[in-house]
Amino acid sequence: MLDAIVIGAGFSGLYMLHRLRGLGMSAVVLEAGDGVGGTWYWNRYPGARCDSESYYYSFSFDDDLQQEWRWSERYPRQPEILAYLNHVADRFDLRRDIRFGARVTAASFDDGWTVLTERGDELSARFLISAVGCLSSANVPEIPGLDGFAGEWYHTGRWPHEDVDFTGERVGVIGTGSTGIQAIPVIAEQAAHLTVFQRTPNFSVPARNAPLDEEFQASVRAEYAEIRALQRETGNGHPFRISPRNAVDTPPEQRREVYEAAWQRGGLRFRAAFNDLLSSQDANDTAAEFIREKIRETVRDPEVAERLLPHDHPFAAKRPPIDTGYFETYNRDDVTLVDVRETPIVEITRGGLRTTEAEYPLDALVFATGFDAMTGPMLGIDVRGANGTLAEKWRDGPQSYLGLQVAGFPNLFIITGPGSPSVLTNMPTSIEQHVDWIARCLKDLRDNGFERIEATEEAERAWAEEVQAAANRTLLPQAKSSWYLGANVPGKPRVFMPYAGGLAHYAALCDEAASQDYAGFHRS
């Protein structure tokens, strides 16, 4: 029997394997894909790019790794991130303990975990660690007629590994979330005509992407210790602090100057311009209206611009995309915007897509419809604990203690699962915090002669209340169509899933529990 089985070979799985080896534990990583990378192995769609800046969307656990790697752009493209993760796998000789093409289908506990894969592997281990990620279960909407579509269709999260060429084709894209906003400008450059089927207008801030010069990279390498310390001290895992000033207390002209400077700088720091943007509706309205004005200025056709204006959710209450030329794309003569809230999709036909108003001829269709986020990857596995299945346990929404463990599922750890800050943060920072905590826990169990650890139901219930209370202290739950709430998947319970109390505060709570003999957990 192994000490541990890890599911997934993305950022989480690679670092977890590295830490397990450091503890002298025997471990195997089971990975569905044919290579490492996780999210960045599967998401190869046109324009796929990270929205955290490259120099801190990376591991901090090894300074030699930080010093030797060179990023080419402010926001790295998918191939560059995948190359980085392959470099990590090779540098630390991780592949010898990774089984590729091994999609996990079932896991059951009986004095240890037995794991089955799609291809027939059966493995046993004392501990099971889920590194399946938050955004790895593709959500393809059930639209009548898809099976009869004569053209090719794709989901951004399951993109083919060979090049897809849309040259000369009539392409439809459904969805204008983060992936759609990245893909649409790139597809428009290729396609003979692009039709965008917009379900929900979205706020977006320009990325201002650019190559990184050696002078900047040298300064980053010299300051990495300070940068990483700042990441761990902030609420979102980024190396910048949210401004202490409030938008509602700032005179309008000065406030506009702040927004304009943040807009010109670009990127996620826009939402850090003021302290009260996610706690005050009045403050948020000022940011939202500023962005709407920018959309009106950018899109030449006033009717198209009006359809692109988001009014149904506060700014940054849904995942706030950053873009390169997204709104400018709608100035092209070969791009059509269809608002499917006004004219809903009826069916996919053999030759295209039909709404209540018209039929649009298409040669290819792209679903930028996101993921069954946070719970979908885990529930895609038949996980059976000591007293029942995870699907039963999570029927009304995910339950966990600190997002790390689930009562009734001994020796199962979840990295960046529901109930943790995860998707509200820079993911590598959250991943390292989780993996380091799990590694400390495993060492403490071994050092103190324990074989088993499990969250208590009492701690789980209290944490569920705290997760909802933290969300309710913000404007985040007001985005009723957000995947943070599971609203993009029909029939999914509407529960706010990530912890909105901030990464630094969360990490302190995790450390406090560990230092108090793992309060909230039962060890035996």
From TrEMBL:
<keyword id="KW-0274">FAD</keyword>
<dbReference type="Pfam" id="PF13738">
    <property type="entry name" value="Pyr_redox_3"/>
</dbReference>
<dbReference type="GO" id="GO:0016709">
    <property type="term" value="F:oxidoreductase activity, acting on paired donors, with incorporation or reduction of molecular oxygen, NAD(P)H as one donor, and incorporation of one atom of oxygen"/>
</dbReference>
<protein>
    <submittedName>
        <fullName>NAD(P)/FAD-dependent oxidoreductase</fullName>
    </submittedName>
</protein>
<keyword id="KW-0285">Flavoprotein</keyword>
<keyword id="KW-0521">NADP</keyword>
<dbReference type="InterPro" id="IPR050775">
    <property type="entry name" value="FAD-binding_Monooxygenases"/>
</dbReference>
<keyword id="KW-0503">Monooxygenase</keyword>
<keyword id="KW-0560">Oxidoreductase</keyword>
<comment type="similarity">
    <text>Belongs to the FAD-binding monooxygenase family.</text>
</comment>
<dbReference type="InterPro" id="IPR036188">
    <property type="entry name" value="FAD/NAD-bd_sf"/>
</dbReference>
